[in-house]
Amino acid sequence: VQLQASGGGLVQAGGSLRLSCAASGRTFSTYVMGWFRQTPGKEREFVSAITWSGGSTIYADSVKGRFTISRDNAKNTVYLQMNSLKYEDTAVYYCAFRRFSNIVTMRDAGGEYWGQGTLVTVSS
Angle at the Cα of 81 (from 45 to 85), degrees rounded to 5? Predict the structure, then answer.
């Protein structure tokens, strides 16, 4: 499975960005996708995850109400709409993929496969 993330960039605080992550290869029909982020000197932290059907989502408390995860299974793509961005959202964002799994396992164990990361910089 290969994951290609895009959409990062520089934005002012209060602004919005949308990240995309396209999965290719042998993805199977049942999988979970999610987003994590990491800043220098810190461990990678969970942001959000979504089930293969899109029916269930989970968010970190720090982004709840501001970020929205969605997916397009026809395109094997997951999106992260980030609104009301804060300086502390600055990080490299990684998309994650996990086969035959659930969103809680994704949150707690991380991805089975990872994208290359896309940098989001929020200026204060």
Answer: 70
Q: Which of 84, 64, 109 is nearest to 12 (CA)?
A: 84
Element (H, E) at 103: helix 103-109
Amino acid making up residue 60 = A
**Amino acid of residue 51:** T
Contacts of 48 (CB under 8 A, 6+ apart): 34, 35, 57, 58, 59, 60, 63, 67, 69, 80
Render each residue's pLDDT in the chain as its tens digit; 124 residues. 999 999 999 999 999 999 999 998 876 667 899 999 999 999 999 999 999 887 899 999 999 999 999 999 889 899 999 999 999 999 999 999 999 889 999 999 999 999 999 999 999 8
Q: What is the three-class DSSP state of 109?
A: helix
